[in-house]
# Entry
Amino acid sequence: MRLSRYFLPVLKETPADAQIVSHRYMLRAGMIRQQAAGIYSWLPLGYKVLKRIEQIVHEEQQRAGHIPLLMPTLQPASLWQESGRFDAYGPEMLRIRDRHDRDMLYGPTNEEMITDIFRGHVASYRDLPLTLYHIQWKFRDEIRPRFGVMRGREFYMKDGYNFDLTKEDALHAYNRHLVTYLRTYERMGLQAIPMRADSGPIGGDDTHEFLVLAETGESEVFYDAAVTDIRLGARDIDYDDKAQCQAVMEEFTELYARTDETHDAEEFDRIPEERRRSARGIEVGQIFYFGTKYSEAMGATVATPEGERVPVHMGSHGIGVSRLVGAIIEASHDDKGIIWPEGVTPFHVGIVNLKQGDAEADKACEDLYAAMEAAGLEPLYDDRSERAGAKFATMDLIGLPWRITVGPRGLKNGVVELTSRRSGESEELAPEAAIARLIEIYAGKL
Amino acid sequence: MRLSRYFLPVLKETPADAQIVSHRYMLRAGMIRQQAAGIYSWLPLGYKVLKRIEQIVHEEQQRAGHIPLLMPTLQPASLWQESGRFDAYGPEMLRIRDRHDRDMLYGPTNEEMITDIFRGHVASYRDLPLTLYHIQWKFRDEIRPRFGVMRGREFYMKDGYNFDLTKEDALHAYNRHLVTYLRTYERMGLQAIPMRADSGPIGGDDTHEFLVLAETGESEVFYDAAVTDIRLGARDIDYDDKAQCQAVMEEFTELYARTDETHDAEEFDRIPEERRRSARGIEVGQIFYFGTKYSEAMGATVATPEGERVPVHMGSHGIGVSRLVGAIIEASHDDKGIIWPEGVTPFHVGIVNLKQGDAEADKACEDLYAAMEAAGLEPLYDDRSERAGAKFATMDLIGLPWRITVGPRGLKNGVVELTSRRSGESEELAPEAAIARLIEIYAGKL
# Structure
């Protein structure tokens, strides 16, 4: 993309009402625009990041055999009356009446609807196990929306639902989701720690929240420092292998790590003192096993091999897709702006032309641009007639992890400059060598 | 995808309340499930088609330099009060009140919001021309929703908005959109004819609707038969070339083609009688030029090169993404089911194993499956223990354009059968040759 033809409305001033860094930088980098309290437009740069995150979530869910579908944003109240949650949910549920005076709502989550789909179409144990998920806009009418997309009202979420014949199978689905989530966050350059949590209005016994440590987190968390040393890494996972998924789950959850809701001071004190940590965390996902809570209430049963009809065991599993954009920024920025991890960056590399209009510099930039596109990289070329300082400031603010700087002086020596946004380190390279380096950096990430 | 692990709830019976063929087949093929009047869940197969269509729309918009962003589904009433449409819109607008008693609405379209984004961030002619678009869920509270996704309440639409300094530039944007739409529909295997139409609540003078001819169409249309012979085809388009876009527009719109709203019997009668046609059509898109209607009302101005502030010239341009799923089926089916065009098919090819459990047949199917995935094709492998007739009926119903049938008899002679869903013709081929044929068929469509 050429910046002269893009729509990237960066702001020079820091918006007064933005209290946390991700909100400030998303506004300043022209990623979002507030349209009402807690309701945002995703401007082109923000939209690109949102889509990259969504794509990673899709890939990791489908890798585990989970099947995508799409439920609508509006739901009939009748489904929620069946589960008893229509009255229980409180004022955060946005209730709507249509022109025929029918009660509807903007879905805050989809346990009821997915259970309705299941009971309408599945009748036998032979169709299990089954995990369906969607990524859809949801609404929670927060009384005081704040922190930009971190605590908005209209938000984008992946929610998945497993249907299993037995509790054992459903716990495998729980573990399987835990593994997919670990991989999902790691691909985004995030460390999200599974912590034992409270199930809230979803219900159920088993639940873990995934928390990214950050000063601005809304939750207080307590953990054994050793938990931050564990990585999933590139290990090969067979998602049908119950023992393997269980082992990963145990590895990641056996050390103490809890939110304040489930914190147990006595147990915490048994951790060696030098490893005891309390901090703040941002919730970026949660998994639940809630057994037959919804299937019993709504009559979602299957025939067993013996011909008996039993309610299915279920769980639900959510990742906050729009919230992750903010969480990644909270975890990865400096005082000049955002620093995108390679896995989610909106553009792979920025090209800064130090002397726009200089025939040689323009040609070198055009050649780099074409070669990058041919290699499957997405560059953002700052082709405006601005001074170098302004171009650098924009690139630093929007946080592309790599920048190539092209100027007449370097070109005389046959080199351009490749700069890491994270370390600030620069390297002089022939243009072809710079592209080769970028291809290497993004291997497996395109 | 292996059918045994997929969620494809096909129905044997024809649903009684579905009046048109696309609605019937979408229900029977397990593509959608109604959740409330005019509100559907997109089950996995339907979701895949929806996403293929969305992807084509994105590609063709971005090819023309149009920039994607994403506006929220809910909008504050205040924006619509500025344009005067909050009161004018009528009961099809779903009005909502949030917990703080603020008036909101579920967006049926986005002229106001995009104008608000524009005025908030753009101030100079130097940032023009600019075309922004999004693909987002919308709501229109139809009094009597029917025909499945063809006239639903919650629907998925691409809507794009151009901002230009002059009327001439805005008319180029209009022509450019017309060309992108022609290409978009042709890639989906559809002929959609641009017809002069009425602008309705959007406003403006220039507007064309794109109509697919089909008996079940909601509009009566009148046209010169010669208009159905024109194709855009593979011609190379430079979307910055005003004369070229204008020429394409004229080529496609100079012959008589109008909806009943703008029909002129006298002019129609001047067409040679043997070319006069009246028929029914399904609207799948519409483009508008409406000048400064919204920019004046909402103060969206830019500075000209002379320093004067003038309201921008705008147009809006919509494609009914969810509606297209139905329209394609209306245009492409037979009495056994859907016939997907290659450009939008949910899976590229079906594999039918005639003797599941037979070691040789199973292995041949697995090998085909792996080879197809390696070639970038997405196969649907019917690996269920069903009789051949049931497997064929499912494949015919869901409408994959190509089927490979594998059975012990053919394998003895080293062949499988490749069948075209459209023609019904079969060909016996070595497995490798069948894959080579499919790769050829889908060249440029993956």
User: Anything to note?
Assistant: Chain B touches chain A through 55 residues (CB under 8 Å). The first strand of chain B starts at residue 32 and ends at 36. Chain B has a mean pLDDT of 96. The domain at 3-337 of chain B is CATH 3.30.930.10 (BirA Bifunctional Protein; domain 2).
